[in-house]
User: Fold Copper transport protein from Psophocarpus tetragonolobus.
Amino acid sequence: MDGGHMAPTPRSMSMMQHKMKMHMTFFWGKDTEILFKEWPGGKSGMYVVALVLVFVMAVLVELLSHSRFMKPGSNHVLGGLIKTLLHVLRVGLAYLIMLALMSFNGGVFLAALLGHALGFFISAVAFSKTPQDHPFDLPPISC
Assistant:
């Protein structure tokens, strides 16, 4: 002890160095961690896979948010279970996207935005039955 302070151990120094690598502002580059420790690990191919994964998750969130899976007159209990499972899937994917965005990587941010845009466009065009559905009106935000 020196003046009431303990000398840093090799483990605490390693943890401090790891914490210093975390970004708190947006940055560009493949040297980042997305969702899992040491993934994609600075490898260009794995970084592209990570961006595609974020993109696909964002598309799925939008498709699950704007599609109707139950027909009128369906069994209410079964319908409620299916809607609950789809809701859990949608919220889980949305949380994973949010955690990926917390890497503060610009590529991840753009992949998420483009995925949400494509998913919204697909659901607006594919799921509108008539022109009166106004497919491009923004739906109300709900939790």
User: Anything to note?
Assistant: The radius of gyration is 21 Å.
